[in-house]
Amino acid sequence: MLVDSLGDVTITSDGATVLDELDVQHPAAKMLVEVAKTQDDEVGDGTTTSVVLAGELLKRAEMLLDQGLHHTVINAGFRKAQEKAMEALEQMAKPVDLKDSETLRKIALTAMHGKGLGSATEHFAAIAVEAVSQVMEKRGDAFTADIENIQLVKKEGKSLLDTELVRGVIIDKEVVHPGMPRRLEKARIALLDTALEIEKTEFSAEIKISNPQQMQAFLDEETKLMKDMVDKIKESGANVVLCQKGIDEVAQSFLAKAGILSARRIKKSDVEKLSRATGARIITNLEDLRSGDLGSAGLVEEKKLGDDKMIFVQNAKDPKSVSILIRAGLERLVDEAERGLKDALSVVIDVVKKPRIVAGGGAVETELAKRTRDYATKIGGREQLAVEAFADAMEAIPRTLADNAGLEQIDILVALRAAHEAKGLWSGINAYTGEVTDMWKEGVLEPVKVKEHAIGSAVEVASMILRIDDVIAAAKPPPMPKGAGGHPD
Fold first, then answer.
1. More confident: 454 or 214
2. Do 309 and 381 lie in a common domain?
3. 47 is an active site residue
4. How far apart are alpha carbons 11 and 17 in whole angstroms?
5. pLDDT tens-digit readout, 75-133
6. pTM for the full predicted model
7. Is residue 117 part of a domain?
8. How far is CA 398 from CA 146, 265, 324, 482, in A?
9. What is the spatial distance between Cα 454 and Cα 59, in angstroms, rounded to a whole number?
10. Same domain, 174 and 298
11. % pLDDT > 70, the chain
12. d(CA 489, CA 480)
């Protein structure tokens, strides 16, 4: 439980969130926080692994420094060990078929273990796989997917199991006019990035009106312009108008009479998602609107969730942007569910980008420790000590897993080493039984991309901190002279 200075509470087991919320002052510790953020931004998982590994590398390096080893020798050893580990990872990793949804579901489940989602974990994993499969695209010879195309909408109420995938977009707006329909099937959608309003002139202008007839003519002309705009929309065949800018009240009444469902001031990012989901082209000039520019959706409906009304654009034919509506009984759980779901989506996307996987549960780290130890004897010299220190640091992951599961660290480590010596490549810790078992058969799978990034960033930050000879307080920058930019005094 993290409590900030304002008294706001965050309850999480997510490593990146913990480090992000902590009030870290130490300059070296700030670098570790940056490692976690980068890991989270790049691959979306493995943040705790990268930080634990970096901390362990520094701890082992300190022991070597005390023994008289120079930091450049330690860094060189770490680099060689890292290269060997990356090479070994590439050899160990197995390819995965992106159509194999069962394997992808296991990968998503592994990422969400320990997130406090309980019985809903399976449900969330299935949603994550389906969402990523839907937004996946082929570029050249490779596939890619972007988490930006998966919208996460949080709403308190109901339970975690009521979380659902919407094949389309959820807009946090309501229908603008009470006379408009609230539900439309077989929707033809116009996306407008232009206001349905009379634009004000850029320069000041005065209109002199001398009698009431002139005033009426002026107002009638405004109304006619509005009616022409709405007629243009009707001609295109649209029955849903989603506008990024404003819709005038007169235009609203004309749209309502025409039976067109409309919403205004929709976020630009949501309009882009709607374009990907429905196939509609974003129109910046109403004169350009044609029937071919419209998108389609099986259903557009305004729904009430709690105190808020939202518009669901769903059942699109082949949406390249989807939404997940996250439900849970209390706010803290909704937030944690979102974090868990983000991890699941991220690891499935990692596999889409690089379809190779390894087993989790400390199996990979134990095998890498074994292989780098064997490699150390071939190097010789002082660097050998640094490579051995790297191997010991890799074992910090299974040690931490054992500790978290309430198991005896030394017993587990001995059992793991013995299993890997006996060619048990995927032997890892089963936290439930406390035994060393085959993690591949247990279905504990992780993307190789997460492991590579965690090891790479941990070695980088450890090497950078090792190069620091002294910490000196830097002088404050001199005050800016008056009139040299900034705020006027």
1. 454
2. no
3. yes
4. 9
5. 999 999 999 999 999 999 999 988 888 999 999 988 888 776 778 888 989 999 999 99
6. 0.83
7. no
8. 31, 51, 34, 59
9. 17
10. yes
11. 94
12. 11
Measure the CA angle with vertex 205, ends 201 and 211; round to 5°: 120
Q: How many residues does the chain have?
A: 489
Would residue 231 show up in a list of annotated catalytic residues for this protein? Answer: no
Tokens of 284: 């910046």
Contact between 229 and 154 under an 8 Å Cβ cutoff? The reply is no
User: Do the domain assignments include residue 311?
Assistant: yes
Catalytic residue (choose from 47, 49, 372, 437): 47
Report residue 390: phi and psi, to 5°.
-60, -45
Exposed / middle / buried, residue 357 (Cβ in 10 Å: 0-12, 13-18, 19+):
buried
Instruction: State yes or no: is 248 an active-site residue.
Output: no
Q: Side chain identity at 471, as an amino acid letter?
A: V
Single out the residue of 39, 58, 61 nearest to residue 50, CA to CA. Answer: 39
As a dihedral over the C-alpha atoms of residue 459, residue 464, residue 465, residue 471, rounded to 10 degrees, the angle is -170
The answer on 375 and 305 residing in a single domain is no
CATH of the domain at 419: 1.10.560.10
DSSP state letters, 107-126: HHHHHHTTSS-GGGHHHHHH
* Catalytic, out of 48, 278, 372, 437: 48
Is 284 marked active-site? no
For the chain, the domain total comes to: 2
C-alpha 256/C-alpha 440 separation (Å) is 59
- Is 303 inside any structural domain? yes
- DSSP code, position 210: -
Handedness of CA 62, 63, 65, 70 (dihedral sign): negative
Q: Which of 40, 45, 343, 350 is catalytic?
A: 343
Is residue 345 within 8 A of residue 133, CB to CB? The reply is no
- The domain of 88 spans 13-95+358-467
Higher-confidence residue: 278 or 474? 278
Residue-wise pLDDT for 82-98, tens only, equals 999 999 999 999 999 88
CA nearest 42: which of 359, 340, 378, 350?
A: 350
Residues 144-198: tens digit of each pLDDT? 888 888 999 888 888 888 889 989 899 988 898 888 888 889 889 999 888 887 7
